[in-house]
Amino acid sequence: MSLLEARDLHVEFASRGRRARAVDGVDLTVGEGEIVALVGESGCGKTTLARTLLGLERPASGTVRYGGAPLAYSTRALKAYRREVQLVPQDPTGSLNPRHTVYEAVAEGPRIHGLPGERERVASALSRAGLRPPERFFPLYPHELSGGQRQRVVIAGALALDPGVLVADEPVASLDASVRGEILALLLRLRAELGLSALVVTHDLGLAWNIADRVAVMYLGRIVESGPVEQVLSAPSHPYTQALLSVLPESPAPVVLGGEPPDPTRIPGGCRFHPRCQVLAGGLAAGAGVDGRCRSQPPAILPAAAGSRVACHFAEASRAPA
Known about the structure:
Layout: E1 2-15, E2 18-31, E3 35-39, H1 46-53, E4 61-66, E5 69-70, H2 75-84, E6 85-88, H3 92-95, H4 102-112, H5 118-128, H6 134-137, H7 147-159, E7 165-169, H8 177-194, E8 197-202, H9 205-211, E9 214-219, E10 222-228, H10 229-234, H11 239-245, H12 278-281, H13 284-287, H14 291-296, E11 309-310, H15 313-319
Parallel strand pairs: 3-8, 3-9, 6-7, 7-8
Antiparallel strand pairs: 1-2, 1-4, 4-5, 9-10, 10-11
Helix pairs in contact: 4-5, 4-7, 5-7, 7-8
């Protein structure tokens, strides 16, 4: 069952006198007890999409739905919604007030929402986040903690509200390699023990492989490929996904993309990836007879449906029976 959902979501910003289409028609779902990885390079729109799903940005059109109900944007409705959908930020040091103890940091959410049993709630959240015994951490300040411990405090702050979904924005990007595995294992354990769902925003396909059930690959405001993580990352269909995977250490040779980095104020016609596409540049699209469509016809917006999906004329032609 779908828990958190985006339907035909569009988010725009004014930028240098033009409109930046940061999210340009996205369908995405996160099911109950499911971990979905949203991947793509910097500037693709994944953080804006995550902020919109958190209720921090209001879409120009389309809807965010939680538990089947559309998100309302009144102050009261947003307050109730943000208890259910909690952010785990990228930088725990920047998100923790250096003047607040661990106890105060974790207790802040329950106080805002007027939840009973504050001390027990804080202790339980810290324990679930792997900080045991929790009382030992109550009086400590952020500068007295390691990077991994600070990230666990941030996660505990989310858990103290008993949310249904965590939105984790690059949750291990600021951590040492030795600690990253511990935090990923924690997220998997929370899913197993609490039934938590999660949307993990990352540029790291290795992280997506290790933690996610499904993956959605985003480029210039749209999902260009999605499906079960084993299928998408073992046999990627979209040239952009193939290029992202090619930089992993076990890949035989990296794909060097040409053209300019994506600019959401200047989205090209046709397939939005075509100015940088190695398949089009290498003549394979012409050999399949789809090069004209690549340059002039936008692929359809991918539906939020089960199974693998790809928004690519060449991939569709390759799958078609002879």
